[in-house]
# Entry
Amino acid sequence: MAGIEALGRLVDYSVGVAPVDLSGGAQTGKRVSLKNASGVQVVIFKGAASTGTDPAFTFKEATADTSGTSQVMATPPAYFYKKSATALAGTEQWAQVAATYSAGVITLTGEEGNQGIYVFDVLAEDLSAGFEYLEVDSGDAGSVAQLGGVLFIAHDLLVQRDPALLAALSS
# Structure
């Protein structure tokens, strides 16, 4: 393993929801395991829409990478950080936002017209007993095209390896 690379030592990456038109219907996210990491940053990124619905996401915990038991997260992140603007220019600063959920669903209220990056940090200890997987599903964003996706960044890896030897984050 290279001495200074973060990939494999500090972080690993996995797709939650591949970039998709969020107005094309709800998307079931892929699951990521927190067995070999202290936590995972959930990075939601999206384009702007002129009208439509603010995007919504559901945070779920599960007992297996497929099948098993799945439920809305009992303790979803209390806040998130965002960078958003009509057109992101790289000059935006992070703003901390209190997260408000309704039955496990967070709606990015007032964000339909913005491009944005939204980062939620979920620690392994935030999952209920017996649950080791996280899933983030996207809701239908309305009738106007709005591209977006979800990226998982597992951090503080408990097992550090050369990137080519890392176990899949779904296992």
Observations:
- The chain is about 0% helix and 45% strand.
- The mean pLDDT is 92.
- The chain has one domain: 11-157.
